[in-house]
Design goal:
2 copies of one chain form a homodimer. Chain A is an alpha/beta fold and about 400 residues long. In chain A, about 40% of the residues lie in helices and about 20% in strands. In chain A, strands 6-5-4-7-10 form a 5-stranded mixed sheet, with helices on both faces. In chain A, strand 5 and strand 6 form a beta hairpin. In chain A, helix 3 crosses helix 4, helix 9 packs across helix 10 and helix 11 packs parallel to helix 12.
Chain lengths: ~400, ~400
């Protein structure tokens, strides 16, 4: 059997791969550093960097606002070659942002917004925010290289259409990319909120981790899976639906009805809407998930008891997910992640007890560090991945060469 | 935004990618067909095929035993450039095979074998079978390009060591590749049985399906996941452990103890060992899982009742997996898949009732068509993938060019 041939392996490093190196470092790299990181010959590195510079994908560090004090001979990823517009559409609020190609938020807007008011009402607000964000920064629609939106429901990744969403009344099969086509000539990516959040956490906080689980405990309960460094959406965009796993709870005679039509689902016990329902039944006049979270934080005994029960039920469902999926990191976000440390303690206790030792010995269960920006940041990185595929980078360089 | 540049996309097709095309067709391809399939220029196709022919990776169809009646100008993947030795090590039996590089079984041996007798006893049998398979076909160890083994427990994919296996007494951290090193100078791949089975099903039966779940219901219960066309092993090789999800069963007061030390696991109700236990408790003198399966097939009322309960419990666990993972195909194998159609009917009923409609509308639940050869066939394809990576193909061609 032949041993691996190093020069052949290096031949696999395209200009797009080299550009990827620069995306991952904030301070840029010199030619010597690229040679050392890649094992490519000096000649090849010169060729590849010349192409990336000619196409404007890289720039000298001295020309970049963040790194302009740097000595000559250092190059950085050109974050300002264009901008991105992204929007995180939640059940009861939305957030829109203008980002650079490094995925950094340059400006943002947020507003309360009821997703059940339907696509026209919600997307009108998103489009207005996008226009304001561009105008406020002296930018034109032509400078937008990509638009990304995430929504609280399953999405057909190929077409960007929401499919059979349990809570997004009026959105089924709606053509979201089509809404933006008259005004923007760029790709429009639509994804499920937890997928974008999972990718944001992985790219920015755990770049060395291949397998990550994002759990969002908001009005409902959902998970986003990163498998082998890629978002796992499943065959129909329905993956990660931990909220509708059925559970049996000992002190409950009649399993509660879920929003999906079944009974006894995880989120019918442990989602934000269920917490609001149970607090109301106990005589607390709470109207929103945030009010329920405040009541838990205030130490109200009924609220704390319900939050602890939610933690045990969530822990059981997450333990099952750990047995099936074996992630290295579980990041927990959403409004209920702000109740208090008891939620985490309850989840951790059940997961470490019920999952197999092999799957938990190196497992980290953490609060999402990016929440509530995880979705926005994940979307911007998903967009840049799509804009700068190896094939597209190759084409940008060929075009720049042809124009000289 | 730039539209996708077709010539740039084509530039991404390496000789290894071209070789992959040939692996997927049994009748071979002409240069014209390769040009049509890939969109590459005639000149590039000529170059790439010349390289693959010079390195002996492709051969003219007229020189291949299967296709020798074919007209000139047609080329086939050279399945006879070397051979593979693979072994499927089960809890109570093992199967060893000699395969060509097309993954086809040329000869095989099987024997009863108790995995708890430990690695030295089991691997001695495997090595003897390997020697007999080579000698019986007039082959020398130097012609072996790869060795693959699958085992009924979690494996650290990097080192090929079994890790904390619940049922493989004496195998923990054992260096399986090291056993073969004195005699064979080739890579040794070790994987969990259900992973190899899942890959075999996907490659040979569902090549167009990216997301597949393999469920093995044998002595224990395990699942192998194909995510995005690749085996999902998880962060510690522990993924797919559906057998140790905890379930609550209404008519059972005291959840049964599982082999893993917990109580109430799926396999403590629905695995082959649990079926044997319950039949014995009911007064049936069954000793093995196969005897229990025969009793179900004979229509014994207690055995049928227990099999139906197992189907409901497995159906619940598979429904959870569908909600989390959203596969397109579920293939079910292992000894209990041979009970009868009732098992499948029971599983299907629960899955279609409990999983979300979006995840089941295109879902197929089928009996494994390759079982009991799914593991052997999956291993041989995993081995060829590793032997013929794009980088290695590049190296083979460079070496062939240098030798001319």
């Amino acid at each position: 059997m032949d041993t691996t041939n190093a020069s052949a392996l290096r031949a696999g490093l395209s200009p797009g791969d080299i550009l990827g190196l620069f995306r991952d470092v904030s301070d840029g790299l010199t030619k010597t550093e690229v040679t050392r990181h890649t094992g490519l010959s000096r000649t090849t590195v010169n060729q590849r960097l010349d192409g990336l510079l000619a196409a404007g994908l890289l720039i000298p560090a001295s020309e970049d606002a963040r790194t302009k004090g740097r000595p000559a001979g250092r190059f950085v990823f050109n974050r300002e070659r264009g901008v991105l517009l992204v929007a995180d559409i939640g059940a009861t609020a939305l957030r829109a942002a203008l980002c650079d190609l490094g995925g950094e938020v340059l400006a943002e807007r947020e507003a309360d917004s009821d997703v059940t008011s339907g696509p026209a009402a919600v997307l009108t607000v998103v489009e207005r925010f996008f226009t304001e964000l561009l105008q406020g920064n002296g930018l034109a629609p032509e400078q937008v290289l990509g638009i990304g939106l995430d929504v609280p429901g399953p999405v057909d990744h190929e077409t960007g259409r929401v499919v059979s969403p349990p809570i997004m009344t009026g959105w089924d099969r709606y053509d979201i990319p089509g809404w933006f086509a008259p005004r923007y000539d760029c790709p429009v990516l639509v994804d499920k909120d937890v997928n974008a959040m999972a990718y944001g956490e992985q790219r920015l906080r755990y770049p060395g981790v291949d397998h990550l689980l994002m759990v969002k405990i908001g009005t409902g309960v959902g998970t986003g899976l990163i498998a082998g460094g890629r978002v796992h959406r499943g065959a129909d965009g329905a993956a990660g639906d931990v909220g509708h796993i059925q559970v049996t709870v000992e002190d409950v005679a009649e399993p509660p009805l879920c929003r999906c039509g079944n009974t006894g689902c995880v989120e019918a016990y442990a989602g934000g809407w269920a917490l609001v329902r149970d607090l109301r039944e106990a005589g607390h006049p709470v109207a929103t998930v945030n009010e329920a979270v405040q009541l838990v934080r205030s130490g109200d005994l009924t609220a704390v008891r319900l939050a602890r029960r939610a933690a045990r039920i969530l822990g059981g469902a997450i333990a099952d997910t750990v047995n099936l999926f074996n992630p290295r990191v579980i990041a927990i976000g959403g409004q209920l992640a702000h109740t208090d440390e008891q939620l985490f303690a309850g989840i951790r206790e059940v997961v470490y007890r019920r999952s197999l030792p092999l799957a938990t010995r190196n497992l980290q269960i953490v609060r999402s560090a990016l929440d509530p920006h995880a979705g926005i940041l994940g979307l911007s990185h998903l967009l840049v991945d799509g804009i700068y595929t190896p094939e597209r980078v190759h084409a940008f360089i060929e075009r720049a060469g042809a124009g000289r």
